[in-house]
């Protein structure tokens, strides 16, 4: 007997849960790509994406995943031999840096470890050591560690030091989950993808860029025709938006997802994620009063609101994930990048996603399933986690 045979809940930090409204919007016959509804809706879709990113500036859309946006952002920003300052807090900053290196960019990487946000003093040292760097690269929320960085603080540091570089931010895991203000925070390049807070299947990547980045990028010698953000941003003909055939059904799904986000209101979307995250953290703290259960990020102010990285001990993380998936219908995220490849410790870690199309009953359900799984498997844990989660949601 298994208790998994109801609706499955994919609680991993991307791809996230797709709303029925998004799925139904995609269930259509192939649309005309030369005129009609699809071609007419793209202007509004671009405006609505910019509204979610809190920018009035520029946007290039790519048929690709998050990695594609890493390369798109790099190719339009850098020239061969430029230096990039990378402030890495977990795994994804290193990935973006590696892409830059492979394109011929020199990277000056400061690694803040697997459980801490960017530290101002070390960031300042990196900026002072590389005054001519073309850009500073930051991950808003690292999906492996669930650490969240203060992007406005990095901008202020750059301004205080008079650093002329561009500020580039990876918001793939945080856009439409955590508050982000591209224009107010002085961000020059911001990247995102369809399959996380935007609740749409993987396959669309977004590069938002400031007028300053647009001007600076004109001299980049890493641009190639496909990745060049200029025609995608200023398309004269519909196909120039995509450099070829439009991603028809992704656009239909994304259109509906953006409508849902704007119906709710982006501030309410952020508040919902904040509240649900607080329930997860409250449960985790209760579990941690006995046994090995621990949150990866100690200070709530530095935790992302769309995913929570946690650990048990031994192989209990993997055992618990298997139980929740196969016996209860909830798929939790694997631990990512917390140990070196090949080390046995990886099985202690897992991640709970609360990203995108999630509500109280989904989050409370996932927490109750984790609680039950630990009881079934004999994994030691403190009591009262579900009461604590309920209290967190009930509080003003
Ligand atoms: C998911 C993610 C990526 C990579 O996105 P893909 O679509 O898997 O290529 C990059 N950065 C962050 C912060 C992410 O969460």
From TrEMBL:
Family: Belongs to the class-V pyridoxal-phosphate-dependent aminotransferase family.
Source species: Pararhodobacter zhoushanensis
Keywords from the UniProt entry: Aminotransferase, Pyridoxal phosphate, Transferase
Keyword Transferase: yes
PROSITE patterns: AA_TRANSFER_CLASS_5
Molecular function GO labels: transaminase activity
Superkingdom field: Bacteria
Protein name per UniProt: Aminotransferase class V-fold PLP-dependent enzyme
Pfam families: Aminotran_5 (PF00266)
